[in-house]
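Ticket closed. Logging final result for Tyrosine-type recombinase/integrase.
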Amino acid sequence: MKSNQTLKILFWHRKSKADSKAFAPIICRISIDGKDAEFSTSQKVHLSEWDVKTKKVIGSINSKKINSALNHIESSLEINFTVLKTKFDDVTPIMLKNVFLNFPRENDNNKIEQEIPQLLELTNIHINDFAELVEKKLRSSETLKQWKATKKKIVEFLRFEFKANDIELSSIQYSFAQKFYKFLAVKRIPALKDPAAMKQIKNLKQILNIAEANLWIAKNPIAKFKCGSEDPEIMPLEIFDVEKLWRKKISIERIAKVRDAFIFQCFTGFAYQDIYNLSKDHIIYVGPQNEPWLVKERGKTKVTEMVPILPIVAELIEKYKNDKYCRVYNRLMPVNSNFRYNVYLKELSDICNIGRSLNSHLARHTFADMMLNVLNFSLEDVSKMLGHKNIRTTQRYARVKKSRIGKKMNESKSILFDKKGELRNTFQ
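Final structure:
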């Protein structure tokens, strides 16, 4: 062997990190010739269950399991240390730690000891980086809210499953994603629906991709976890439902304003975030007829969406041009916060006897359906008006109905058949 160094391994209880239930993490300290490195063993025990003299867990139903895990860590460290001594004259604690955790090994040409964040620390790093992009208007503030929501759910899961405030990246295995999904979809109160739960797993996967890219983990342990989920088919409102909403006399001002905003969405296809920020600056006059269009970059995708202003939309813009809120904030429509908007939409549904819940996103689906199946726009045109990046997304919004197929068939069958219904001789 090239080295005659000696290794000391110590397990200790980090009482200062005890949670509300008095459970604290067990830390492993590696010492080689006076130099130290530490890492979490991913094991937690109650303050009363750690024996300071023997450095073992006692009096716990999990004593045998945890002590076995600690013995395994100690054995693995000793084996890796022996291997490293055959290759290097000077083995450092950080080298041994990185090899044990499957991180890139420090060598003579790279003496930088990098602090490896834990999962929530990494999540905070990503959120802070994303917030900077939002400030520069390179990312959507709504997406930032979603990342913060993901962090909240990870916090809930760690406390529920591990009784921990954070977890080492190296401790995360494939089963972490499975347990996280089960927590979100089954055990959490309130539980998330399948697509929403899968979205959280997808976000977690992105965070671990960042860890892999920074060499904090050798490989994303949940990379193969499939986040696919059947897209729930959202049935748009029929045109007669839209008409019922529009013609209903509503005496409650806040509900009337929400109704008008929803109708505005139904005839423009703009998402909540985009209608909320619409101003006169987004009205562009196009062509020799000087026709007014709404042209705006979508907050979510940064793709430009452009929609001709239909008469009903023009009427609403005129109606609110002198509204106090619209004048002060330079808005086309007075729109509530997203929460209030959707709460009031539920009231609107009851008042108008629609028979189903209304929400701001339903208006977008309704617009797509009207454009495709009522006004017979092509899917490509609808995609452009919705500001989608690709047509596959549009296909989830706008389903081709039998009525559209029937209308097209009636218009086209004369190509194949004569007035008597006889098949034409197409080769003459």
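The two ends are 92 Å apart (CA to CA). No further action required.
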